Amino acid sequence: MKKFSRRDFVASLPPLALMSCYLEKADLILYNADILTVNPNQPSAEAIAISGDKIIGVGSNDDIMNLSSAYTKKINVGGKIITPGFIDAHSHPAGAGRSHLRNVDCDLRSIEEIKNAIFERSKKTPKGEWISGFKYDDTKTKEKRYINNIDLDEVSPDHPVIITHRGGHTAYVNSLALKIAGIDEKTPDPKGGNIERDPETGNLNGRLLETATYLVEKFIPNKFTRADYQAGVKLISNMLSRSGITSVTDAGTSVKSLQSFEDSYNSGELKTRVYCMIRDYAFDEVNDSGKKTGYGDEWVKIGALKLVCDGSISERTARLSEPYIGRPDYYGIIINNEDEIFEQAIKAHLNDWQIAVHANGDVGIDITLKVFERLQKEKKRIDPRFRIEHCTIINKSLVQRIKELEVIPNPFSTYVYFHGEKMKEYGKERLENMFAVKSFLDAGVPVTQTSDYPPGPFEPMMAIQSSVTRTDYTGEVWGPSQKISVEEALKVATINGAYASYEENIKGSLEIGKLADLVILGQDPRKIDPMKIIDIPIERTMVGGKWSYES
Ligand SMILES: [Zn+2]
Questions:
Q1: Burial per residue of 479-508, b for 16 or more beta-carbon CB atoms within 10 angstroms, e otherwise
Q2: CA of 412 relative to ligand 1 center, distance in Å
Q3: Which residue among 10, 238, 413, 500 sits deepest, i.e. has the most Cβ atoms within 10 Å of its Cβ?
Q4: Number of structural domains found in the chain
Q5: 124 in a structural domain
Q6: CA 420 to centroid of ligand 1, rounded, Å
């Protein structure tokens, strides 16, 4: 992080000096564009002028050309759409970057293919060393069952293997991994987790849910060097940039990951601004070093403290008030109860940190709101911007409490489209109250766009299509009452994301004085078949006045 940024400098100037900044000539002008500014006072424009990393003019071609000098570069955009850069308000870029660097990508369509991939990796890995896989998705493999320890033993008896689900809340391990972790049939379930057994034989099947995954994960040595951490950030930052993302929230940052974002920024590799939500286990170290929410600059900034209440949507462990479809006795998992979350949150609250709690099911959301209500009783803060990460299954009274506490919900934006085959476990009726962007917007609640990548794909065009059509990749519709317009989706994907990180005054819309973060789209999402929004090409992405991606 820079010690003293240009923004701090500009902010420290008296108002008159600030005015003169706006009279400076443009370095770059984009003209002949169809600009969707997401600024309600000037929704559309033809041209935009940029100086340094800021926008200095938005308006008609003629007006903006007045800001040009002999040194101004001018680009004719040819009538194409320009929007603000997309803000992914909840993702896991640091971890995902490292996984892409080193782990076996198990985003495959059969257990056989996954076994082959693990087998190939085992041939190149010294015996006894761990093999890790990621992005496994049980409902997307053709066998329609979970991968188990027997499958993995067949292809890798001499290497401990762990494959995490793309949802990140369950893991699938082989017998050697269980042995190393000292887990056998008699091992009791840990609090907030489950070591799964075959219902008929009682034998372990290698599936570990929620906190039970830590029983194995703690034995895996972290072999990533500081340079590896940085390389992971570089890799993912390029991937995000290609999809039009200019800002991302890392929803669970460790001290090493925070360092990796700073390293990447300092070496000029970072192409995406990052808001770092610090995980509970890293909180004391960060807080005691004097940092808290808002510390940093517009490239790498400390965000909320990130806590967890219940399970996952994609792995069907979210805690629901009504059982899962087809499993009348199963309601999902609470990982931390109200008192536990309160205890984890109170120090941060008293130190003026933003607080974000992962809560998916309506039971988890209710518990989280109770915690926020108690925190505000303990110390009434103005504008704490509490966040509920995912906030998936809601009802009228939850929305009312969310509004009263001014909580920011951050629901999954690509799940309806991408995880459609899982939705039958929630049911059509419940889907009318899931990923409830429309309900939040109608209530005036600043809901954001999020991927949670790896759990959901991060491409903003998929997110917009998913929110606008509520239709999955097979054509099935889930919760049509929650459909929103393209214009609404754009707002959710930009200015609302900026609000969630206290940055609505510096980004999230295209207006004078804001950061020049923008995207040029190949087609107009308002004018094409909504089922083809996903195919709209991202032609260019700009962050802070510099192209971070050019097709
Ligand atoms: Zn997450």
A1: beebbbebebbbbbbbbbbbbbbbbbebbb
A2: 9
A3: 413
A4: 1
A5: yes
A6: 19
Distance 138 CA to ligand 1 centre (A): 19
**Residue 105 lies inside a defined structural domain of this protein:** yes
Nearest Cα residue to 6 out of 550, 520, 515, 546: 515
Report the CATH number at residue 207: 3.10.310.70
Dist. CA 368 → ligand 1 center (Å): 16
Q: What is the Å distance from ligand 1's center to 311 Cα? A: 11
Sequential pLDDT tens for the chain (551 residues): 444 444 454 444 444 444 444 468 999 999 999 999 999 999 999 999 999 999 999 999 999 999 999 999 999 999 999 999 999 999 999 999 999 999 999 999 999 999 999 999 999 999 999 999 999 999 999 999 999 999 999 999 999 999 999 988 899 999 999 999 999 999 999 998 999 999 899 999 999 999 999 999 999 998 899 999 999 999 999 999 999 999 999 999 999 999 999 999 999 999 999 999 999 999 999 999 999 999 999 999 999 999 999 999 988 899 999 999 999 999 999 999 999 999 999 999 999 999 999 999 999 999 999 999 999 999 999 999 999 999 999 999 999 999 999 999 999 999 999 999 999 999 999 999 999 999 999 999 999 999 999 999 999 999 999 999 999 999 999 999 999 999 999 999 999 999 999 999 999 999 999 999 999 999 999 999 999 999 999 999 999 999 999 99
- Residue 390 DSSP SS3: strand
User: Which residue's entry shows tokens 């409902």?
Assistant: 139
Q: How many CB atoms lie within 10 A of CB 379?
A: 11
**Structure letter (DSSP) for residue 506:** T
Output the CA 250–ligand 1 centroid distance in Å: 8
173 in any annotated domain:
yes
- Does the residue 134 lie in any domain? yes
Q: How far is the CA of 296 from the centre of ligand 1 (A)?
A: 22
Residue pair 448/90 in contact (Cβ under 8 Å)? The answer is yes
Q: Domain of residue 173: give its range.
A: 93-217
Q: Which residues contact 429 (CB under 8 A, 6 or more apart)?
A: none
Taking the centre of ligand 1 as the mean of its atom positions, its distance from the CA of residue 123, in whole angstroms, is 33
Say how many Å lie between the CA of residue 452 and the centre of ligand 1: 5
